[in-house]
Amino acid sequence: MDTVLSGIRSTGNLHLGNYLGAVRNFVRMQEGNNCYFFIADYHALTTHPATEEMHRNVRQVLVEYLASGIDPEKSTVYIQSDVPEICEMYLLLNMNAYLGELCRTSSFKEKARKQPENVNAGLLTYPVLMAADILMHHADKVPVGKDQEQHLEMTRKFARRFNTMFNVEYFKEPQAYNFGGELIKIPGLDGSGKMGKSEGNGIFLADDEKVIRKKVMKAVTDSGPTEPNSPMPEPIQNLFTIMKAVSTPDTVAYFTEKYNTCEIRYGDMKKQLAEDIVAIIKPISERIKEIDADNEFLKRTVMRGAEKARENAIKTVREMREIMGFKRLF
Ligand code: TYM
């Protein structure tokens, strides 16, 4: 039995990339594992969200995750800021995280480029807070998308460093996890980059089928291949990447063959892609409405989750303090 942990920042509605990169795998792992799922609302602070937006987003992410199949009877579902011990653990781990390695993190460099007016210390130490989330529960597996791979590497480094520094075998080294093997990156529909919450290139779990079809039909393509077996330009590769994640292997093989023989009609491909996405999202978007209306269920879920998560948190922080030499003077 493994301990599995998954998290998401509460910065907006969940999109297909979140679901396929992290949630779907987590949902499959709920049976027979010790599973924790949490909403990373402290992490969301790096972009200075408005107070009301912050509150709304936490609830929205909670509802959408539960609608995606996370079962609070099987998994511990909690909100990061309901577990204040995370802050102490973050502080303790920060002492062994170095400026050089934090500055070299890809996500930091990207964010510093995108928001030069707000390069705060929280952004710099984002991977340390993430390591605290993971190490707090001694997680073995962390289902994440490709963009989090480096953060998992850093978590392992911080764990090893702590063990070496204090000459203990305390933290284990968690692995980023995907059932298919390789971690995935779902691209956006705009022909480049990854699907994101704020990039305007996403399909959201709350989208209804009409909206999904419209978005997919508008995805960027080109005028089609003119020579057999020609390399695929990025926007076309992206459509195939999404298709591989949502459609059957036969469907992918069919359109690949059509591309290679220059017979592909992108309209047909997009229609099929839209159908396969709708098949995944429709049941989720229907459940979103039901769960959103059930305040009692949401309240019960987060209260029980916080209590269970805190049990681990209190124990881990107490043990870390002991290892590090904190002793009561009197
Ligand atoms: P966040 O909120 O950016 O994304 C949540 C999860 O969704 C995955 N993801 C994607 N996967 C594939 N294709 C995409 N286009 C795509 N976009 C997002 C992410 O890889 C992630 O798994 N730092 C984390 C939140 C976090 C966390 C943790 C995760 C905080 N502490 C501890 C795991 C363990 C984040 O910002 O994810």
Describe the protein.
With 330 residues, the protein is mainly alpha-helical. The protein folds into two domains: 2-185 and 294-324, HUPs (Rossmann fold, 3-Layer(aba) Sandwich); 209-289, Tyrosyl-Transfer RNA Synthetase. It contains 14 helices and five strands. The strands form two sheets. Strands 1-2-3 form a three-stranded parallel beta sheet. The protein has a two-stranded parallel sheet with strand order 4-5. Strand 4 (141-143), helix 9 and strand 5 (175-177) form a beta-alpha-beta unit. It is globular and about 80 Å long. The model has no long low-confidence stretch (mean pLDDT 94).
What are the defining features of this structure?
330 residues; mainly alpha; 55% helix; 2 domains; Rossmann fold; globular; three-stranded parallel sheet; binds tryptophanyl-5'AMP
Fold blueprint:
Blueprint: E1 3-9, H1 16-29, E2 34-40, H2 41-44, H3 51-67, E3 75-79, H4 85-94, H5 99-103, H6 106-114, H7 121-124, H8 126-136, E4 141-143, H9 149-165, E5 175-177, H10 209-217, H11 234-246, H12 249-260, H13 266-292, H14 295-324
Parallel strand pairs: 1-2, 2-3, 4-5
Helix pairs in contact: 3-13, 4-8, 4-14, 8-9, 10-13, 11-13
This protein binds tryptophanyl-5'AMP.
Residues 5-9, 17-18, 20-22, 40, 43, 130, 133-134, 142, 144-145, 147-148, 184-186, 194-195 line the site of tryptophanyl-5'AMP.
